[in-house]
Design a protein that fits this description.
mainly alpha; rod-shaped
Length: 209
């Protein structure tokens, strides 16, 4: 779509100057919000790294126990076992507040012991499962920290898009329009000045006659 030139007038120039001040103020506000969000992300990163390391260390131990259990039971038996055992971890996705921000997160409610029924299972499987259960709160906290991290990151990107739109689209159009109006007004003033001089000289010539 072609850029429409504004109607040259003092009122238009005043309106454009007010718009420029307004958008520069909005840009400053958005930049401040973006920078504050970046600082929040930087504060979260060490917590997230620590949480990930803790989860990794604990699940590494669980993995060793699970491997020991698998070595005593075939994969087919584990497949049959998984078909009859109901989920034993109670979690729910809901709106939670963390670091002063509300977002969709994981709420850990608790666990219940699995009922193996007629299946005979090695004790290492129980140890692996309880190892997961005992760390599920830590795992859910890590997942919520990651959700918070990516929520804030998306917000920073949105702020940056707003700043880019103001910098690269709105302000250049306003500045170009203001320049056009100023040049046109200056041109009109020069024409008016020349016209007055011509009329004045013409009147002087007529007066001499």
């Amino acid at each position: 779509m072609a850029f429409e030139r504004p109607i040259p007038s003092r009122l238009t120039l005043l309106r454009l100057r007010n718009q420029e001040r307004l958008y520069r103020g909005i840009k400053k506000t958005v930049e401040d919000a973006r920078n504050a969000t970046i600082q929040r992300i930087r504060a979260i990163i060490p917590k997230l790294e620590s949480s990930r390391k803790s989860v990794y260390d604990e699940l590494s131990k669980v993995s060793l126990m699970l491997r020991a259990a698998i070595s005593k039971m075939s994969i087919e038996d584990y497949g049959k076992l998984s078909e009859v055992i109901k989920p034993s971890v109670d979690v729910e996705f809901m709106d939670i507040v963390m670091e002063g921000l509300k977002f969709r997160g994981l709420e850990f409610r608790g666990v219940s012991s699995p009922n193996y029924g007629i299946f005979a299972t090695p004790p290492e499987l129980d140890s692996a499962l309880y190892g997961i259960y005992s760390n599920f709160k830590v795992i859910s906290d890590m997942m919520n920290l990651e959700s918070l991290f990516y929520t804030l990151l998306a917000r920073v990107r949105e702020y940056q898009r707003m700043v880019n739109a103001i910098d690269n689209v709105l302000l250049p159009r306003i500045v170009e329009s203001s320049k056009f109006v100023r040049l046109k007004l200056d041109e009109d003033e020069r024409e008016e000045f020349v016209r007055r001089i011509v009329i004045s000289r013409l009147l002087e010539t007529l007066g001499r006659r």
